[in-house]
Amino acid sequence: MADSLAAVANQVMSIGDLAERTGLAVSAIRFYETKGLVAPARNTGGQRRYLRSDIRRLSFVQIAQQLGFSIEEIRTALATLPAGRTPTQKDWEKISRNFHDVLDKRIQRMTRLQSYLAGCIGCGCLSMKKCALVNPEDGLKRFGPGARAVLGDRLR
Q: How many other CB atoms sit within 10 Å of the CB of residue 57?
């Protein structure tokens, strides 16, 4: 019995310990809790107690945010992970597959933007001569507002 209690005690941590392990501020961890990204238990004194697996969850949150994913997208992804246990490699692979397509599309968009920045803005013409070749008579407007060519739309 004492061994099982010790094992459980080794699987939970305080918010301060979690902050130290993740590099996040305590306030950031509380914010992520309000957004449903982590769900600590409470001890008898009402203090938050996090699972060690929350280190990985919060590390994922940090990385996903750096890659431009919204809190809602991250919350939706994390909701697929099992509660109350450390996610397995298969659990993380499932999330990875879902994010892979989104990341590929973002990479393609950034590559196009990089090309346009070097070729269009960098050309120095500051006129519509070249842009008239890429988007004659503003034909891309039918796709909607914004930089349609950079978003991948093309005139056929």
A: 20
Same domain, yes or no, for 42 and 104? no
**Pair 149, 134: CB distance under 8 Å:** yes
pLDDT tens digits, one per residue of 94-110: 888 888 888 998 899 88
CA 12 – CA 10 distance, rounded (Å): 6
Q: What contacts 24, CB < 8 A, 6 or more positions away?
A: 18, 32, 58, 62
Closest CA to 82 of 107, 54, 104, 103: 54
If asked whether residues 104 and 135 sit together in one domain, one would say yes
Rounded to two decimals, what is the model's pTM? 0.68
pLDDT surpasses 80 at 72: yes
Domain containing residue 67: CATH number: 1.10.1660.10
